[in-house]
Specification:
This protein has helices at residues 2-25, 31-40, 48-52, 71-82, 141-149, and strands spanning 55-62, 67-68, 85-96, 99-108, 115-125, 128-136. By secondary structure, the protein is of the alpha+beta class. Strands 2-1-6-5-4-3 form a 6-stranded mixed β-sheet, with helices on one face. The termini are far apart.
């Protein structure tokens, strides 16, 4: 009797794992999850490529100082900003259709700009980020961008 119970238990575990695996293969990230994965890459340099892979080739980015029209342009800016960015903490994120709004704190190694609050709005299409608009107080950051251009 115990051997029959053991066989049934093993069968249940096996089939449960099989069903779970199949369900996970079909899992599609929500737009909110895509954006959070994108932002998380800025906390870990080893994951930044996974973040950049979530951008469309014709990705459009705008912040108070720059307007970029391609993924390649954004990557160049991200590499420069990545040298001073020390962390990013998402405080909140909300999804509505193709749009995801985020509210986060980003930190830098620049004296006087160690802690910054920002809101970024992302538009996604077919599982990739097509555009985003970053909003933050850029009054002191203008000096940093001016130095990068030299």
């Amino acid at each position: 009797m115990k051997s029959i119970e053991l066989v049934f238990l093993i069968a249940i575990v096996f089939f449960s794992n099989s069903i779970y695996s199949q369900q996970n293969q079909d899992y599609k990230m929500t737009n909110r999850e895509i954006v959070l994965k994108f932002l998380d890459g800025f906390n870990n340099p080893s994951q930044i490529q996974a973040s950049l892979d979530l951008l469309a080739e014709d990705y459009k980015f705008k912040n108070p100082m720059v307007e970029l029209n391609s993924k390649a342009e954004f990557i160049q800016l991200a590499q420069e900003i990545g040298t001073v960015l020390t962390g990013l903490e998402v405080i909140g994120a909300a999804e509505d259709g193709d749009w995801v709004a985020t509210f986060y704190k980003f930190e830098s190694s620049i004296p006087g700009l160690e802690s910054n609050i920002a809101s970024e709005w992302f538009r996604l299409e077919n599982g990739v980020i097509k555009e985003s608009r970053l909003i933050y107080d850029a009054s002191e950051w203008r000096k940093v961008y001016a130095q990068m251009e030299k």
